[in-house]
Amino acid sequence: MKAPIGPAPCKICGVETGQRLAWQQHTGFPPHALPQFFEVGVCDDCVSLRPDESGVAVRAALRVLGRSEDRWDAAAPFFNDALGEALSKVLYASQNLADPQAKAWAHVDRGLRRDLRRAYAGVLKARAFEVRRPVLPEAATFRPPVGYRGCGFCGVGESRDWHGPSWTKTLTQGPDLREYVVCDDCVKALQAIGAVGTRAVARAYMTAQGLAYDEEDPPLGLRAWLDTGLPPSAEPWAHAQVHFKERPPNLADALARVAALEAALRGQS
Ligand SMILES: [Zn+2]
Ligand SMILES: [Zn+2]
């Protein structure tokens, strides 16, 4: 092993650090980047690149391009995808040289700079998209008015808004009038049907599933949450257990079945 010699280069940008070069087992770099060879230093400028934390190559690349390193983690996928392992070449340590260089980043050649610029173009494109697309704040949700626990239809415990209270006999099995509120989603079905009852509940359920409500083929076994006695839920319709009536076979189905049978018989003979 050689004795310490000369001033140590910055392992990031390559300039002289003022530290003495010490021959040591190197740690903290990917093995391919620097064999166990010598310990190099970090210049004052590169300390802010957080040399010993992950993402240092991305931050260094941004600095080479004269870009801010603040959002390096958002930029990282673009550099990693475009350059892969080659990204580590942006670090002077990848050169495995004991001598400092006169100019910072001189080891980043034109080809590598071009690749970095191309990778950064992806960052800019993504950012432009981000700016154009308005980020809508997620609507705040609230618990129902005092005295109510959840939506009488779907049972959800929080909603953007609450409607009611109203009274009904039709949502529950008992003879008594029951008081209920509905959430901001279920109220739309109630308004569309125009009257509280199984049809409004069915429509609210189908809409929540992203399905069209078909009066001829309603969800069967669906109960309003008000009728269950269950605690409210974070998700609407957590209590629902439904099935649909089997469609009576029509002529086209029957003919298709005959054709399939015939084909099967032909295959056997
Ligand atoms: Zn440096
Ligand atoms: Zn609801």
Give the strand tally: 4
Largest sheet: 2 strands, antiparallel
Helix content: 25-40%
Heterogens: zinc ion
Low-confidence stretches: 31-36
Categorize the overall geometry. Answer: elongated
Structural class: alpha+beta
Please report the distance between the alpha carbons of the first and last residues.
85 Å
Mean pLDDT: 85
Report what the structure shows.
It is a single chain. By secondary structure, the chain is an alpha+beta fold. It folds into 2 domains: 7-132, no CATH class; 138-269, no CATH class. It has 6 helices and 4 strands; from the N terminus they run ββαααββααα. The chain has helices at 56-64, 72-83, 110-132, 186-193, 198-208, 251-268; strands at 7-9, 16-20, 162-168, 178-183. It has a two-stranded antiparallel ribbon with strand order 1-2. Strands 3-4 form a two-stranded antiparallel sheet. A hairpin with a 6-residue loop joins strand 1 and strand 2 (16-20). Helix 1 crosses helix 2 and helix 2 crosses helix 3 (110-132). It is elongated and about 95 Å long. The termini are far apart. Residues 31-36 have low confidence and may be disordered. One zinc ion binds next to loops.
What labels describe this entry?
2 domains; 8% strand; two-stranded antiparallel ribbon; 30% helix; binds zinc ion; 269 residues; alpha+beta; 6 helices
